Structures are given as structure tokens and as C-alpha cells.
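Morning, I've got a small favour to ask if you have a moment. It would help a lot if you went through both lines with me. Thanks so much in advance, here it is.

***
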Amino acid sequence: MEADLTAGPTRDRTAVSPSGRAEDLKSLTSLRFIAAAMIVLMHCSLYYTWPWLKSPLLAQVPLVHGVSFFFILSGFILTHVYGQSDVPYRRFLWLRFSRLWPVHAVCLIVLPIVVPAGSVTFDGPGMFSKWVTLAANVTLIHALFPYLSYIFSWNSVSWSISTEMFFYLAFPFLLGGLTRFWLYYLTGSAVAIAGFVGLAHWFHLAALSQDVNAITIMSLDYANPVFRLFEFCLGMASYLAWRNRPRWLDNPAIATVAECTILGILAVWFLGGFRAFQGLVKGDGTVDGWVEIAGSCWAFALLIVVMAKGRGVIGRVLRLRLPVWLGEISFAVYMVHQILMKAFSVAPAWHAEWVVLPAVVLAAAIAHHGVETPCRLALVRLPRWLAQRYGQAVGVPPQAG
């Protein structure tokens, strides 16, 4: 997530509909931190040898699916916030850009300062030069390039916000016909995935390659917005299911039973079910490639629908101040954690979990409160300020901003 990694709090005051009818779904804000923690743990397992990271139980959990969770949550929350809104298209895109770009820009500045030179990014000839990939990162288009040297360049986790930006470009158009065409959205995006699988077969692509400048199945589909659109559309469709739920499901006792049930399903799925299913579809790296990165999307959709209202006991816990705050800083957690891990790699004494994990939360809190929030608010107000300052001089009314 933003729930989603990038949508901000589930009732972002800079993004609510003019009518103010968007309900604050605090329980989903808290779930964003769970999704971010999955990615942090996944990267911890690559950098560190902490004993508990090597436990067989944790090894069963597909931590990479945390990004899929974010994409689904993004579709759900944006539909919730903007479903009754008449925000103009350009204004919507500016609001979303204002949410993503400040922390992303600061991370790009900090990265080469604190990270050893050899770990900053890939470098190569021509279009694979680090300066070319930097330009793609700054403009948030690097997810479009089917090369790992682009997708995972610089602050590598930022590929997902590049993918999100393309979702945002499509979202207002998808929203208009969602009620009537949601099934077509899911079907069409699933067909697009099949198309990528077909391309991989047609060109006999390898699943992976040591050459980061080669096109592989992973580089072709992992970050591509078209390949990942199904997850976003699933989130939008899940919102319709939640909006049209029977109201008796909001009864606290029934909601608690539903919450416990979905958590039980998730436990079975993550602690054995997913790996068993993955074995059934194991093949040449195409179909099972999608399962590897997004095979839990159905479970996340169910979890979001059940937890969104937060009426049960678990939902009420998720609405407490601490988990909500952790959810609010989750975007920053996601953006800064790998930079810190690379920075700490030069000092083995800093490899202990009691140093790394608190440092990630602290850095994320600083980034959220010191960069993300004030910069977002400033950027949101910028068009109106420009219109008020300069619009009258050229005959443009102030409200045009």
C-alpha cells in the first residue's frame, strides 16, 4: 500500500471529495504498515543473517506480495476517496504527484551521499548510463523500461511508485465506468497478463539473467503497469463489494467473526497454501512468474473488504493511534528502508536488528513529518497560490488554480 503505499491516509485532507463524504477508514491506514513491513522483512532477509529471518515459518510467507497488497489497496482507497468527487483530471494528477514526489526526490538526493559508491545504482553505456536512468527516475517513468537496470536503479523500491503514476493516469477514466464495467476491467487486465505471457513464450525469454541490461520475463512483467493493472482494478472492484455489503455485516460480533475468519484463511494460505499452489503451476517461468509476484491478490482483496469498516475487535485495534500512525509513515518506511540498509552495510556493528529496524522507523518518521507532509501541502496549494499571485495580472480568476 500507498492502505495503499501512495494514497496517503485513507481520508487525505488534500484529496477528499468536495462534499466531504469520504469516510476515514483508519483500519486500512494501519494495514499499510503491515504491507510495508513485508517488503522491509524481504529485504532484511537479503542483507542480514538474523536467525529468526531464516526460520522455516517465515520462509513460507511470500513477502514480495506486500507490493501487490499496496496496489490493491491503492485501487480501493482511491475509489473510496474520489468516487463521489468532481476533482478535475489535472488537479487529481497534481494531488497524486504531490503525494509521491517529495520523498522520492529527497531519497534520490540522500542515496549517493550515504550509500557506498558501488551500491548506489547500475551504470552502463548509452541508454544504460546511470545519468539516463536518473532522468527516468526523476520523471517517474522508469517502470516502463523492460530492463532491471532501469526498474531497480537508484532507490530501487521506487519502481512501484512509477507504476502507480501510470495507474493514476488511467484511474479517472476507469472510475467513470466502474459500476457497469468492473468485470470487463478485471477480464481485460487479466488478458493483458496473458498477452505478456504470450510475448515471453514467443521470444523465448529467460526467467532471469545475470545481465541487468537484458530483457527477461522478470524485467518485462515485474514492474510494467499493464502487467500489474489487474491488481489495481481488483482493488477498485473490491470497493464496490464493500460499498454494497449487507449492513448486518457491520454488527460488531459478526464483524469480529468475519475478521477472525479472514485472518485464519490468510494464515493457512501464507503458511503453506501458497507454496503448495505455486508447486501446482510450476512451469517455465511465465504463468508461475505472475503467481510468484501477485498470487495472493485474492486474499488481500478479501482482507481489505472485511477490515475496511473496522467494526470488529481486530478492526478496533487497527484504529488505535499507534497503528494508524505507523500506517501514515508507511510510505516513508518503504522509501527509506533500503537506503539505510545499504548505508549500514559499511558498518557491520550496525547490522543488529535492534539498530536497523528502529533506525528505519525513525528515519521514516523524520521523512514523513519533515518532508512528505509539509511538501505535499505546499505543492497542493501551489497552483492556487500562483493563480492568486499572477492570475489577476493576465485576467485569470484566482479560483482557476
The mean pLDDT is 86.
